Amino acid sequence: MKEIRPGDLMLFQPGDMYDLRIGYSEATQLSSDLYFLGNGEGMQEWWERRERAKVANLAENNRLKSLWQQIILEKRRLDGGSPEMITALVWSLLLQIDRAMDEAPENLSPLAFHALRMRQYIEEHAAEAFTLKEVARHTGLSVSRAVHLFKQHFGVSIIGYAQQLRLGRAVSLLEHSPLSLEQIAAETGLGSYAYFHRLFRERYGISPGAYRRRRS
């Protein structure tokens, strides 16, 4: 018998048999459960892609939680939600489940898990100003160890990866938003326009303003 912990995801195909027993240990902990029932060709295609564990602990995957919440909110709209939007969100959820299971602690070496936790932290905080010390603290490593480990696993520095994410977001805003260049610099975590301008030109060989004019 397997004990289910907070953050565990259970996956069952139609027809699968299981016996779920709800009891209490000496140290009880309040929790809530989320259920997702689905069928259709897309769901069947996802099931047939690969073998998956029946239970995986994905407690620290904030992207998965966010997608789950977006599906719930879309379904709760007064008009019932957009079928196209719900389909897109569900497919994103399924793909994120696969990624999260691949990156679950039990499937990784301790060093790889630390590296992935740092990457997730950077991705979640890229639009904010953060320090190397904060990234290292998130994984319980020293700054020097965190810097070396991240570069070893991903071939780019922590700051370099954050800059990639911020510049990628800046490109999207330049193409699709009316925000000023100064606002884009602030919105993406790049801070001042001067810094944004320098990094953008170094990476793309053109200034942000010229890029926007070319794309308009």
Explain this structure.
The protein is mostly helical. It has 2 domains: 1-107, no CATH class; 159-215, Orthogonal Bundle (Arc Repressor Mutant, subunit A). It contains 10 helices and 2 strands. A two-stranded antiparallel ribbon has the order 1-2.
Highlighted features:
216 residues; mainly alpha; Arc Repressor Mutant, subunit A; two-stranded antiparallel ribbon; AraC family transcriptional regulator; DNA-binding transcription factor activity; HTH_AraC; transcription regulation; Homeodomain-like_sf
Give the secondary structure arrangement, pairings included.
Elements: E1 8-10, H1 41-49, E2 55-57, H2 62-75, H3 83-102, H4 110-125, H5 132-139, H6 143-154, H7 158-176, H8 181-187, H9 193-204, H10 208-215
Antiparallel strand pairs: 1-2
Helix pairs in contact: 2-3, 4-5, 4-6, 4-7, 5-6
